[in-house]
User: Fold these one by one.
Assistant:
Number 1:
Amino acid sequence: MAADGKRATEPEQVTRLIAERLNAGDVDGIAELYETDAVLAYPPDDPTSGVESIKAIYRAMAEQNVRFATDEEQLPTVRFEDLALASTTAADGTGMRVQVLRKQSDGTWKRIIDRPEVR
């Protein structure tokens, strides 16, 4: 379980939890917010597949002391059955961040597709 003990019981909570956990260096906690076979569109020209590979990217970010904003504007979430399309306006002015999430059997939400930068 993540060091902070927080659970994403709504899809809108995932982006903030990832930012908080990266800022705290909790890479294992970030990995808990992705499904096993999730896809991260990073780097933009060579998407990363699988939670272990995604975890390696976040580990490299944590080692480089990368920090994410925790106050990005959440745009309205679109839901369909157990899926959700969530997005935020990037605090750094680069555009938007968009994620597709799926509700898990325990009621939490995890990312299945993550596009961290949309211009």
Number 2:
Amino acid sequence: MNGEDLYEILGVSKDASEAEIQRAYRKLALKYHPDKNPNDKAAADRFKKVSEAFEVLSDREKRQAYDRRGMAGVHAKGFHGFESNEEIYSHFGDIFGDIFGGGMGGGFRGRPAGPQHGRDLRFRMSIPFAEAALGSTREVEIPVLDMCPDCNGSGMAAKAATKVCPDCGGSGSVTQQNEERGGYFSFSSACPACGGSGLKNGPPCVKCDGNGRLEKTRQISVKVPAGVENGQTLRLVGQGESGLRGGPNGDLLIEINVQPHPTYRRDGLDIRSDVRVPVATALLGGKVDVSTLHGMATLTIPPGTSSDQTFRLRGQGIRSGKLCGDHLARAVVTVPKELSDKAKEAVRKHLVSTDIS
């Protein structure tokens, strides 16, 4: 929701009652409904935003989590937004039924017929610079809605009898039409009699209260490939929210946040860093040690080296597949703050003899 305040999205105060929140949503849902704004992407985006804001603020637990921790608290409750208008329609069947007519009140929240694909989940993971460069495997804990083990996601009690719903003939959906403020709406929603399943079910599963899923924390092993970049997204297929009624799981999308390194800077597959070179070594030549991703390396400094001169250590950068970068070390010549009288005299003689100015 791009950081927008949910109360501002609905145009209500932070102490608004449930009735005020519902009235505000009904008004905005009617204004931005896709049927009333065909081919209007801005209206469609706003319709999705107000629906997501209403989902959070109309639920007591989600609202409390939002008030305490913002969207991070809501995500911890397992809500990560709506994927489609159809999901919104089915989720708020009672609201839309009242708006467009058809007597779909009574607190019904319909579900689409047949299997339903689980939602994708997003997770932001911070990793150290060296870990991103070299690759690793991490264990993470993700809050998800997982399939209820008692009913296997059906939402029905074990051995509950089922039959074709007589209200929708087993289709799981009903179509309503209404003319509202000069615009003609045709609105399909889940059948209120069967909850969109197309079946008249027996008693709901006690463990999940008929929802088919339960909130839980799932531990997942994430393989971080060598050379992963800041902002890159890893997709773990099937590790998202569980589907309903036999539908496939969603995916887990992990956005990588690479922490900066105090010494290294990345340049493609190359690594850059500074190396301190004593003035005597810079003048006369010698060797210095350089810290690389793969350990310490020895760098040969030729006589007469100046600051900002860059040396290449081949194969000491990021290794990604068959490609391998280098380590580029920039010389920073260091001068001692204090010299003995003997050392000062030696420098003066050297400067005079070589005419260095």
Number 3:
Amino acid sequence: MDFSSDTSAPAHPKVLEALARANAGNAPSYGADPETAALEARLKTLFETEALSVWPVASGTAANALALACFCPPTSAVLCHREAHIERDERGAPEFFTGGGKLRLLDGPDGRIPAETLAAELAGMDPSFVHETPPALLSLTNLTECGTVYSASEISALSRLAHASGLSVHLDGARFGNALARLGASPAELSWKAGVDVLSFGLTKTGAIGCELIILFGEATARFAELQARAKRAGHMPAKLRYLSAQANALLEGGLWLELAGHANAQATRLAAGLAGLPGAQLRHPVEGNEVFVTLPDSMARTLSDAGAKFYPWPEGGYRFVCSWATPDAAVEQFLSIVYPASR
């Protein structure tokens, strides 16, 4: 009953098999290998565009920080939600990698930035005012840090506002697969077709050992040389890049990543349905992916913890439960069999 995080899950067996295949013989270094070339070709098909460049890294923090640094100068700012991962959980990495870029925080229910909030922020900025830190970039998160989704139309509306004010758009897609599985949209519809310039495409939470992809779209591909230079300087240009690319290829093959994300979402839906009917329990956010945020009586939380269930108290209150590609039916059933007697 480990609902602590989807990063607690093991790597998918097909990832391990792909690594073994990639380990056969020598291959060129620093991304000049066949696995990385195959990954770029696969992504161009998946995202329905030839205007795409990709750089694999081992962590989501590296993906976000490097991506933001390519678009935000040290004298500018990134607009993001107050609960965004780049604000809450990355220990100042975006500020460090940009050389001093500032995060400007916006509010909105359930982890989403409303279009009217962004419009008001943009209308109030004055780049000519020397005492102000003007934004260069809008960063969105999908799934959000509250487990909710932005639809393609919502991203499009926010991107139009950002682009009209001269801002680029970054999407933190640590759980991009979970958002797609929920919406039934295509990767293109939820990224570049909706105005996203750079995507942090997460696969670690969907079965990789550690693999995140920084993907540049359209005119932003002109920044690929800068991205590589920043990756090299920051220590994110491993000589044997083929092992990162092999993980991505294994998960993207045949749509496995979406299948795994869909399983995680379904388990979270089951968990939420059971919790929502319990006395004293209240869902804090809509369950639209693989995360459940819920208020529980302290006695119930203790009962679950004593029975071996793993989950986290959340800073905003209540508790977070996360399902993964490896969450079995038995874990959800055992969890609910413990909770229901405890509630009577």
Number 4:
Amino acid sequence: MVNKKGARAGTQASMRAQASWAFFDFSNSGFPTVVSTFVFAAYFTQAIAADPETGTALWGTATGIAGLLIALTSPVTGAIADHTGRQKPWLAGFTLLCIVATATLWFAAPDVTSIPLALAAVVVATMAFEVSLVFYNAMLPTLTTPERLGRLSGLSWGLGYLGGLCCLVIALVVFVQADPAPFNLDKENAEHVRATMLLTAGWVAVFAWPLFVFTPDTPPTGLPMGAAVKHGLSALVQTIKQAKRHANSFRFLIARMIYIDGVNTMFAFGGIYAAGTFGMTLEDIILFGIALNITAGTGAAVFGFVDDRFGSKQTLAISLVALIATSTGVLLAQTPTQFWIAALTMSIFFGPVQAASRTMMARLAPPGMRGEMFGLYAVSGKVTSFAGPFAVGWITVLAGSQRIGMVSILVFLCIGLYVLRGVREP
């Protein structure tokens, strides 16, 4: 149970506390949906960059830089959080940074002179978003029992896709499609598109509050910040030095490092690929994103029960095999209709891969090391995150084809699945 000091690992928190935690995914999913994937990414390559190929390469470079910053930041802050005992202050700080950087994208006008501002804000916002998840994910094992982790993780991913869907619908109907644009926004200067960045920032700010009000934090240790920093860094160094003691966890982190790079790259370049290869307009891409969120959210929620019944590793293996098959269909599609069918089928398995990965880490992480392990978990998703975007971006430039560039994603999925075979699930 939850006591006055906060949440305890492996206990059952109240339904309101669990729902509030899961609802945080509803709030922050507007960022990857609207900014990273379907609206700003496409707007950057089509309207800000000199041409789509150059825009794709620049976007891939920015995504890679953000990944390196995440790899440097997340394990350190996660280890320090373990020694302070509290997750919420860290979560609040990085969430606020993401909100401010996202709102800054309003100033990215449709001109090449806006490239530095746009890429800098995207790098900061992406870094803050991903690092905030270290502390969010570390709260999961404290809210429910081990046999129900899959359902709670799957529920939050499902709510995340729902939140991204709702934010995307509002962006489409209220701003992008509206004629005339609301609030006297100047369409010639793309203000109706740039305003969706303010919408996204406000969306995160408005809907994140239930977690901070109703979900208990882990108890504070009483260590001053200086001592927590010292102990946290020391513990992180010792964990890395003694990797053999946690060989199974590290093997899983390596597997995830590889396959999630493919998944994230597919997300990051989905809207760009749809626009460049099939000539989709921004409105088409947003409608495409809405459909993807519906199928992906459904898959995440349903597979949460599969996770608890058959295990996280089995859920991951099934989902990765399905992703490889359906991604191949996406890249072989020759018409928009074929692309839509293959992409919607593929998206069913996005959520299960992400939710089951988080559940697997929650089950593998030793008590007292969850912040540290989820920090390394974040690194596993970002330490090579430059590889996928760089590969897609520069192969696209060299081959002169987005389709050929996107083929590299399949390599990451296949290698990650192979490494996962050797992981033992507790």
